């Protein structure tokens, strides 16, 4: 929990000075890096890690619609929460659609 707080505060502070550098930090797959590292250290199960990496590789593009409303919020005159909610709905619809179409 403390690690998450440190990351969130660091990204927020960096973003104040440089939105582009903040975006770089946000785009890092920190959860994946930690999960793969701890998974390997704990189980040493490369086939399981490979399968998780393949699934993640598929799901990352499916989650990209989340960012579209936030990126376009100024253009459409939306506030943060409406854009955030639209992003959550778009990403959820995309992922649920993928799950329903057969994985």
Question: What's the quick description here?
Answer:
By secondary structure, the protein is mainly α.
Architecture overview:
The protein is an all-alpha fold and 103 residues long. The chain folds into 2 domains: 1-44, no CATH class; 61-103. It is 84% helix and 0% strand. The protein has 7 helices and no strands. The chain has helices at residues 2-17, 19-27, 30-43, 46-63, 67-71, 73-76, 80-100. The longest helix is centred in the C-terminal third of the chain and has 21 residues, at 80-100. The radius of gyration is 17 Å and the shape is flat. The model has no long low-confidence stretch (mean pLDDT 92).
Low-pLDDT parts are: none
Distance between the termini: 32 Å
**In one word, what is the shape?**
flat
Number of strands: 0
Give the ordered list of helices and strands: HHHHHHH
Present the secondary structure layout.
Layout: H1 2-17, H2 19-27, H3 30-43, H4 46-63, H5 67-71, H6 73-76, H7 80-100
Helix pairs in contact: 1-2, 3-4
Keyphrases for this structure?
103 residues, mainly alpha, 2 domains, 84% helix, 0% strand, flat, membrane, transmembrane helix, transmembrane
């Amino acid at each position: 929990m403390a690690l998450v707080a440190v990351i969130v505060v660091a990204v927020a502070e960096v973003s104040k000075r440089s939105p582009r550098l903040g975006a770089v930090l946000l785009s890092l797959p920190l959860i994946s890096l930690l999960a793969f590292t701890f998974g390997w250290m704990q189980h040493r199960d490369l086939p399981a890690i490979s399968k998780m990496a393949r699934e993640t590789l598929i799901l990352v593009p499916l989650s990209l619609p989340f960012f579209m409303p936030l990126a376009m919020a100024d253009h459409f005159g939306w506030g943060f929460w409406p854009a955030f909610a639209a992003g959550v709905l778009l990403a959820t619809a995309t992922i649920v659609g993928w799950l329903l179409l057969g994985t």
